[in-house]
Amino acid sequence: MFTSYQIVWYNNWVSALNIKFSCMKSILIIAATLFVVFLVSCSGQKRLSFPEPKADSTSSTTDSGSTGSKGLVGKWDVVKMNAGYDTSAESLSDVFLTFADSSFGGKAPCNHIGGSYIMNGSSISFNDIISTKMACERIEQENRFVNLLDSSVKQFSITENLLQFKDASNRVVLECKRTDAP
Question: What does each C-alpha distance from 71 to 35, 77, 91, 149 come to in angstroms?
Answer without folding.
Answer: 50, 15, 24, 19
